[in-house]
Write a structure and sequence with these properties.
- Strand 1 and strand 2 form a beta hairpin.
- This protein is mainly α and about 180 residues long.
- The chain has a single domain, classed as Serine Threonine Protein Phosphatase 5, Tetratricopeptide repeat.
- It has seven helices and three strands; from the N terminus they run H-H-H-H-H-H-E-E-E-H.
Length: about 180
Amino acid sequence: MCRFFTCLVFPCLALFASLSVFPAAYAADSPLAKAEKLVKEGLHKDALELIKPFILDPQTSGKSATDGLNIAVQSLQQLNRLDALDELLESFGKVHKNDWQTMQKLAETYLRIPHDGYLVDGKFLRGNHRSDGRRIDRAERDRIQALKIFCEVLPRVQKEEKKEENGKHAHAEHADR
């Protein structure tokens, strides 16, 4: 189990930390380009309203979905609406559960979001609140959630690697003839 963390998780974390939060250039009329422009103008509420339906659409996938998620998370942070973050991440995970690359980015997101919050009336609210709730740090729970996601997608990654490997062998055999 410890070897799993050392060999797989830590190198992945180092790789993920090096990735950019902002998306690459998109067509000017795409929701991503519009939302990115709104964020740069400081209009985080408008960016969130535009990007949330886009990233929760099952037709949105891959880099578009994860770049949109980054914009949504950043907007929620700027709006000090961290209490809405958990719901967004859970919904995103349900919509994109069959795309291992998107789920991998979701796991990374759990590792980089703020982990503190308050327990109010038996419910955890991420971020700062003006209540009499008890302060809680969810770093370990968020890390465990990320590891669960990594573990769920690992068989799909291995399956895809085998397909690629078999394709390379078939291609090499064909080239030898």
